[in-house]
Design brief:
The chain is α/β, with parallel strands linked by helices and about 350 residues long. The chain contains 13 helices and 11 strands. It folds into 2 domains: about 160 residues, Isopropylmalate Dehydrogenase (3-Layer(aba) Sandwich), CATH 3.40.718.10; about 180 residues, 3-Layer(aba) Sandwich (Isopropylmalate Dehydrogenase), CATH 3.40.718. Helix 1 packs across helix 11 and helix 3 crosses helix 5.
Amino acid sequence: MTLQIALDAMGGDHGPEELVHGAVQAVQESDVGVTLLGDEQRIRTALKDYDWPSARIQVVHTSQVVAMEESPFEAVSRKRDSSIRVAFELHKQGKVDAVVSAGNSGATMAAAIKTLGRLDKIARPGIAGIFPTLKGPVVMMDVGANVDCRPHHLFQFAIMASAFSSMVFGIAKPRIGLLSIGEEGGKGNALVKKSHELLLNSNLNYIGNVEGRDTFQGDVDVIVCDGFVGNVSLKLSEGLAEAVLAMLREEISKTLKAKLGYLLARQAFHNFRERVDYAEYGGAPLLGFKGTGIICHGRSSALAIKNAIRVASELVRRNVNERIMQLLLESSPTAGVEQDDLSDLAAAKGPA
């Protein structure tokens, strides 16, 4: 079955031209269709530069765009004909199977929740970041959607990220670590300590606290944290990777011996660049709402957009939401939660 992926063609820093290029690559290299939303004239002008299977790219004109600096929920409510709002409306109507956007991440999350709603019993949807490690990819959640959290939110992040890791990366029982300032269970702030107890008393494959330096070792498959810490970790990692590559280029250019050494190790440098390039992972999945969405970096290249469309199609084909619901039923979401958290959790569950 050919899946149809909606792409917010007005999001991102490079305009619709780069996003259209990524969409064309996606339909050329995989069995997907893409619906491009935004300024129809600009989109069709960009499409003229490429050969593409016309039956698998559609264009839907929208008259509004949510800017990066706008308040997410206000903009989504006010701009009903914005490219991101209409994309999720098409998803709700069943005309597309997933949504990809490199625009305002808050607005993307807001549009998903407002249009499609949360999965049953999920208190807060979140954003899952994918990081390269020495042994394989690790999923960190949340990386920006929820800056203030309670223990049961982190518990559900663990469930959602574990389901994603299991279905997309084929890991039967993903190892889960809680990001803290020390490996000992008694370390961390109040949120981390309570979350540690909650995870410890569950049937998830929780191995305990992990420190920031453990992120890239590959000894865990899922790292759980609140969105404030996760977003700082994400941006720090991106900045470090860019700085390391810049430093290497600077050192290589200093001497003839270094330049000759680079020629001999050029493939190794190329492989390293690919391993740390966020474009290889496409974007960050939105988990916890009744649908499928991917948030891409604002600076996303055509390669990143192509890969984001690929990841979106994998999420749909592998029924990640179904796995999340299954894990919710199998796990014990109230063990170790204090009374105020139980009240919030009951509200999130709704009527029995």
